[in-house]
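so my prof wants the structure for this chain in the tokens format not the other one, which i didnt know existed until like an hour ago. anyway here's the sequence
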Amino acid sequence: MTTWKEKLQGDIPEAMGSLIDIYEAQMELRKQGKLDEKVFAEARLRKGVYGQRYDNGQRHDGLKTRALPYPSNDIVKGPDTLWDAPGMQRIKIPYGGMTAEQLEALSELADEYADGILHITTRQDIQLHYVHIDDTPDLMRRLAAVGITTQEACGNSVRNITACTLAGVCHDEVFDVSPYADAMTQFLLGHDDVQDFGRKFKVAFSGCAGHACGLVKMHDLGLLAVTRELDGETVRGFTVFVGGGLGTVPHQAKVLAEFCTEAQLLPLTQAIARVFARLGEKKNRNRARLKFLVAKLGIDEFRRLVEEELATLPPDARHQAYIGELGEFDYQPAKAGLALNGAPLPAGFADWYRSNVYRQVQPGYSAITLHAPLGDFTSQQGFELADIARNYVGDNIRLSVEQNIVLRWVADADLPAIYQELCAIGLGDAGADTIVDITTCPGTDTCKLGIASSRGLTAELRARLLEKIHQLPEAVRELKIKVSGCFNSCGQHHVADIGFFGNSRRSGNHKMPHFQVVLGGQWRENAGSYGLAVGAVPAKSVPAVLEALTERYVAERAPDENFQAWVKALGRKEIKAMLQPFMRLPRFEQQPDMFSDWGDSRVYTIDDIGVGECAGEVVSLFSMEISKAESTHFEALLALDEGNYALADANAYKAMVLAARALVRTKYLDVGDDRDTIVSEFRSRFYDTELIYDRFAKGKFARYLFKRHAEAPPRINEDYAHQIIDETQLFIENVHSAEQRINGVIIG
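here's what i got, hopefully its the right format
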């Protein structure tokens, strides 16, 4: 039977294919108990592969979860629970941009490997749930064949780089940030300087200061487009923000540089990454984000360290090379832009046009938002949407941080027709960017950290708001609601007008699901300020709380007073008094329905809360690097078994070089990938100094590397392949023992 690896030979970029091969080998080593679980956990997380929670077996859009795509008795039992049940696969979509072909491929994978649902995240990613880990290498290869990667979708790495959904078509932008986000993605993906972080690192681009699309002020690194007049020319650049973040304790980003030219963009980012890798917390993961380092050092000292790092940064041709390619980043509309012709409009079009259509800066074209409730759409909708896109917009598809889909470059004359086609596939709902367009995290549906059902609450609030959307005053229609299942702010509750995050309280002998109410966050101006928690209310009381808040806001607000200003004027004491009646806890015998969560008829419990995988554990750089060598050595063994002796030799040699590089990087991070340089550095730093020597071999195993590096074998047969594989194993073991023996010398 032909494998996907064989089918796609030649279609997968070599670098991406190599990383997938290494990951597949790591999987096999882990099954055999030959790879430490913490190392494998970080390796799979960096490929976007999560374990997930299994709770109530239903989705909160009212649809029962589909049967798993394979019978449970087919699940392979391994040395840890990851093989006991399917998990989640996160897929990176840089700046949310995708083609019709990519959308179709994603839909195929959702249908074949998952439960037929594609989930859009607040980082413009796609997540597939109920994916078996054994299927993930083939899934990754099929993605790679259409130009999509899962590399560093999670783990202690640079996550998906986000950008304005309207970049390139917005009336208010300074310039299109899309090509810069794309260039940074390519530059940082797999870069040596982003492999040794204590936690994740999030980057965002915004084309203007006023809107919320980019949210640069709540990121580890935020880049706001600006221009300056230098020597009579208009020069593009960015105001650089660092140290922002939500999480349990949100931090507002600080300005690192008022103006960074496009030529300085990548070197400055690299310098920031190096400072974070060197000085960021590695032991206490709760203090390991960049925001804590910036707060600890102060922005002035952090700036000094970055400038110092920048001055000693090794030269890299890629720092400026991308600038010459910016002009190649253009958009090809599927049709010429023509205005609406005055023909009769379909029912519902006016409401949809008002909330979901944005007139582009380019005459005759509009961008339309497809509201995806709870961030979900089905594989069948994905197939049909790919066809609609090909017909009307070509490859101009984006995912938004508000968990929606945006089609850009729609000819205005086609708006009625595309609206009808979207309605036919269930993606024509009005209400995008209004109060019914609620952002939510997975919560207790699939997240191991979920405390309360964020998706269940969101579905309930949305249904109630839709019933009366036409009666809501404009001031209420414009409010932003965001819901998180716990305090970690994955639903971005801190930057909502009205946010909720899950927690629990006890009444008698029973626990009751609750949501903390967070008021006064500012979504606009790139997440301009954060709201504050004002009190926890039972989950079943949240709809009544929302109604009380909005009704009082409408009744008391001054003309043109926004919700944030009204909350500030009202004051926390008065708000707490308003919430007090909703905070009273009945006994279980009095109101048993209050002790179940939204969408779940069972009595509430938090006993199944587990350890979250979003950040992973801190694993040493050496452990991650040497695991690549071990995986490549395993590939050499497989090649030997298949009788491919030339490939066995190539992989064994590559594994020795990777092992040498792993040890060199403990002293010299900038060693790069050139094999001559790696071997030279290894020789001078570890062989000539006898640091690689042990009591018995006296450097013998290192000489295996030197011999193979100096000269390829004249003949490669089974005996030779067997020999070099054995030598490689001995060399890797020698590197392991040397690292353990001299670890104190290297890092002490």
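also thought this was worth mentioning. The longest strand covers residues 221-230.
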